[in-house]
Write a structure and sequence with these properties.
Blueprint lengths: L1 E5 L3 E5 L5 E2 L12 E6 L6 E6 L6 E5 L14 H6 L8 E8 L8 E2 L5 E4 L4 E4 L11 E2 L6
Length: 144
Amino acid sequence: MMIIKTKYHGEAQIQEDQTIVFKNGLPGFTGEKKFVILPLSEDSPFVVLQSMQSEELAFIVASPFVFFKDYGFDLDETTVELLEIDSAEDVEVMAILTIEEPFEKSTANLMAPIVVNRRKMLAKQVILHDSSYQTKQPIGGEVC
């Protein structure tokens, strides 16, 4: 068990097996390789992707399927190998959200989803180059 400082939760106790490793870091944050997922609040579809190295680096994320039932994309072979994906059941997809006031103005980054192999705890932010998805896709007020 270890204690880390977080942006939204103050000090948090986490288990080593909760660590998600981004082997290549995140775009714009290549030195940040270890993150943990923390709940934002009870019964919320949103969670916090918190850097274990930098207290102020935390992203509000959620499953894009909560807002966009038809969302989908294919992973290239390089990503599948990097994340050591053996089965689709191991994969979790998250979108980074930009929360605005009022909430209806909030957006999701569907062009650069975070793909996590939950079994191996490996992750990568995937950039979808030939996509109609946007980096600031309005999520509206509706939770499907």
